[in-house]
């Protein structure tokens, strides 16, 4: 498939797909006219790359981990690295859950204030002297 079709099927911009190629995250064959051609498996790979980016991994880390994640080929060092990345994702999830809980508390209080007619007031920050 051509780059535009891959972009449409994955919801990723053409520019991002070119960046993935530059970072050795994605490979394309070239037609005789120089157009990129991707195999069907590129759709799943792009989705995986997007998931890893969303988890906070860098391009370099994704490039190192893709062989383990995609093909199951791994060295002990790569498995250790993957486990460390997973721990970081777990920490971010925990932090996000705490932030969500805090927002829920604020929403509950704000909703109660609306019912009672009390307004939420923004407190001014103390001025520096």
UniProtKB/TrEMBL annotation:
InterPro entries: DNA-bd_dom_put_sf (IPR009061), MerR-type_HTH_dom (IPR000551), MerR_fam (IPR047057). Residues 1-68 form the HTH merR-type domain. The lineage of its organism: Bacteria, Bacillati, Actinomycetota, Actinomycetes, Kitasatosporales. It comes from Streptomyces vinaceusdrappus. Keywords: DNA-binding. Gene3D superfamilies: 1.10.1660.10. This is MerR family transcriptional regulator. Pfam families: MerR_1.
């Amino acid at each position: 498939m051509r780059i535009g079709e891959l972009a449409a099927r994955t919801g990723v911009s053409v520019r991002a797909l070119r960046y993935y190629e530059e970072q050795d995250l994605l490979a394309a064959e070239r037609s005789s006219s120089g157009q990129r051609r991707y195999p069907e498996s590129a759709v799943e790979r792009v989705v995986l790359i997007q998931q890893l980016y969303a988890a906070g991994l860098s391009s370099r880390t994704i490039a190192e981990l893709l062989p383990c994640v995609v093909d199951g080929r791994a060295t002990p060092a790569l498995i250790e690295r993957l486990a460390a990345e997973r721990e970081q994702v777990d920490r971010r999830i925990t932090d996000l859950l705490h932030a969500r809980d805090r927002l829920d508390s604020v929403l509950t209080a704000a909703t109660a204030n609306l019912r009672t007619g009390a307004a939420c007031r923004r407190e001014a920050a103390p001025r520096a002297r």
